[in-house]
Amino acid sequence: MSTLLKFYRPLFSIPYSTRTVQLGTHRFHCLFKPKRRIRCVSTSSHSQPSIGIGGKWESPEFSELWLQNTISRKKEVFRPKTEGKVGMYVCGVTAYDLSHIGHARVYVTFDVLYRYLRHLGYQVTYVRNFTDVDDKIISRAKELGEDPISLSRRYCEEFNRDMVYLHCLPPSAEPRVSDHMPQILDMIKQIIENGYAYIVDGDVYFSVEKFPDYGRLSGRKLEDNRAGERVAVDSRKKHPADFALWKTAKEGEPFWDSPWGPGRPGWHIECSAMSAAYLGYSFDIHGGGMDLVFPHHENEIAQSCAVCNHSNISYWIHNGFVTVDSEKMSKSLGNFFTIRQVIDLYHPLALRLFLLGTHYQSPINYADVLLESASDRIFYIYQTLHDCESALSQRDVVTLKDTIPPDTVNIINNFYNVFVTSMSDDLHTPVVLAALSDPLKTINDLLHTRKGKKQELRIESLAAFGKILGNVLSTLGLMPESYSELRDKALKRAKLTEDQVLQKIDERTAARKNKEYERSDIIRKDLAAVGIALMDSPDGTTWRPAVPLAIQEQQVSIT
């Protein structure tokens, strides 16, 4: 696959910078500390205001939220356990390297769910963990000669920077494994006491045969879990599918004291312990990528139910993969692009728009042509909003009338109805993105066409469109903070400076004055080839980012 980006190779040394990155309002604080002993109860959340459309329009009739539930294999109406409150846990990254765009898809997906739940008026407690104790972290730390916890902490910070770039809101809590050993040890003790686990030479294993519902989430039968196929080979285990709750310490690895000897937790127990610590054993939503359905989430269910027979998570939600040439993007395959690589060339919200352009459950294939299209679309959205804001800034808002034309009301109501209906249908973001076309086109007509400029209550209509678009784009996490960055990224992809582009514009203007039209066309085409479009007007020639000509040809061949 031809691409502007090269596959990312793990960086074996990333110089640690003491430079502080200002995250503004994006703070990553734990809102409360869990108690040491985990009880068989659920906890509730803090409050967040809903986002209404404001103004004089009434919201459409409330549309029930439907979500695809992996455990039932069907779409279900969302009914929280506590009215008006939602508890949501999403499995976070194993922090040993920079995150790739497969990770970006997971956290953009659940950020949109988080935002939409708040839009609907729910108080949401959103917990997203960090795995900072793991074999991969230990292996990378050995390669770098670095302390594993220190290395993981550094990559946790890098991940949080990526989330800010992508406009992902900070969760209510971001617990780390290394900070929750007491909760993990308590849970393992309880599993052993309840007869679901056994000890072998300082290791503790969960006995899957003791849990009759094992396989309910994934649909796998116990006899399908053969050793060597996503389950560790170990002759000491009673069943090949038994999995480690506690691993005995190896020389040179970090360890914690336990009743079974020094060691560290297995991968799966951490999320059971931390979700219970922050949300209780019974909460609403547990999410992650579909690769976590088995074994991770299957094992979480078994562990949590082994501790508390009232353990119940209502909705298991999983997003599809990002693929490259129809193969899953992953670090193990080496066919991945980091978030940093992509946003070095494209605006971060172009990446977010690309990810939202496919329904979250479907696989999405990474290709330059799709990212260029997303970048072009995001520029169109922001250029329209920018022009609208400029027009409104020239008028005194106080003098605006409290009415808008019927045509404007109809477009706004239709758009908002599509937004609510589509988002409530299992977060159908592609439909919402397509529905942006009508209000955006109408804004541009009001701003730039002779007929639009003469329309009665034109400024009032622009204000109304700006408000509804702002609310919807905010719910999608697509409201811009930097308009100029889109142009800067386009120049970087074109390998040009703005001065060079302006010089080309001057050369073309001179060629046209001299009636050298062939020369003029060559300059335009040369710039268009690298994604710089020239626009002529009575006031002169300006430029804007565009899809490069070669990629436009790919788009035509695809369609």
UniProtKB/TrEMBL annotation:
Predominant place of localization: mitochondrion
Domain tRNA synthetases class I catalytic: 78-374
Gene Ontology biological-process entries: cysteinyl-tRNA aminoacylation
Gene Ontology molecular function terms on file: ATP binding; cysteine-tRNA ligase activity; metal ion binding
Cofactors: Zn(2+)
Primary enzyme class: ligase
One GO CC annotation: mitochondrion
HAMAP family in alphabetical order: Cys_tRNA_synth
Protein name (Swiss-Prot/TrEMBL): cysteine--tRNA ligase
Species the sequence originates in: Prunus persica
